[in-house]
Amino acid sequence: xxxxYIQSIDITEDGKVRVSGHLSSTNLDVSLSEMIPVIAPExxxxxxxxxxxxxxxxxADMLVPFTVEAPWIGDSDAxxxxxxxxxxxxxxxxxxxxxxxxxxxxxxxxxQSNMVWLIGAYYDQTANQLVIDAKYSGGCFQHLFTLEWxxxxxxxxxxxxxxxxxxxxxxxxxxxxxxxxxxxxISTMDFQIDEPSKLHIGTPSYGRTLTVELQ
Length: 215
What we know:
mainly beta, 15 strands
């Protein structure tokens, strides 16, 4: 199967969106193209399509590194970039990976309209991004997420911080389970990484909490 495994998304200072990762086999080519909207997106997230195309019938099943770029089309109010990898399998939703800004808030949200399940998380030190893999209930439209932090820490050693992943979208009546990877730039939260420390990630709709340990 022609698949690209995305490992990083970067909006560069010279006005580009750069996506890096690995292709699933040697007979694949990959391209990134901007999906220019008629009007600016209300959620401030600008969409890009990552297309993986076979270059020959036969290829070796091995991971091949790739990096692709496209012009950054966002404006000064942009919240991030969404990379969409179209599915080639019928009835399987497209894969979404979204780069977003974290948000410092006065109080963490306690409600959301859709169910969200946390799958896994890690800290990408190179990009200063907290990466969260999740599933959400829906499929009628693209959902908007935010990562909240109220500026506090638990009185412990090592320091412990509570983050809250929130689906900001209105109720989605569709019943599909959508896989999404969210990459949050936590520098926008005025959050300073301490090592060692622990980041606890929760969500208003589900009891499971993920813990990322920074050593």
